[in-house]
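Journal club prep — side note

Before the paper discussion, L.F. wants everyone to see what a predicted structure for a comparable chain looks like in token form. Sequence:
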Amino acid sequence: MKTTAALPLIAGLLCLALGAISSDAQAQRKLYRWTDKDGNVHYTDTLPAEAAKDKQEELNSQGMTVKTTERVRTAEEQAAWEAEQAELEKVRLVAEQKAKMDSVLVSSYPAESDLQRAYRERFDLIEQSLESARIGIRSQEKSLAELLDHAADLERNGKPVPVQIRDSITRARSQVADQRAYLTRRETERTALRAEFDELLARYRELKGITPPAPESP
């Protein structure tokens, strides 16, 4: 009698167990959605060999995507992707470097006058070197002119120009040319410094939210 009474209970437990096993099996069953090379979408419970290189999505029992595997790129696509990533990295590094420079700019010059003062000193040094070069050129040109006049007087009088004078003329011309080249380099540096300062000042004002003064009317 006890055994007979327990049979319905055992049967119920078996049904629950089988139901749980069935639910687990259903939950563990995988469904894949993949697109072939022609753009056709497929739904299968296993991935065929031809789908190994195509884009794949693993779905759960509710049809939700739980895992995505991108299509394997061709050699050309891989090269293009790597080039794009390298370019993006360059852009990122440039932006990062710019952010650092902005931070240094703002922290180094608490006020706009500090920035202007720092560059004014650099401009003054260049102007001093330019003026020294101009003075040197004028002096050397005067010496060269005197040497040329002396050589011309000798030639007009039918006398030969000594080797020492010819050598002095050559050296004077070389010195004048060197000084003029130096003057040109320094003027180029001044122009570059002016462009650098204008750009930096504009950026500083932008970071500080400073409105630039209106240009003076002529």
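L.F.'s comment for the group: The first strand starts at residue 31 and ends at 35. Keep this in mind when we get to the figures.
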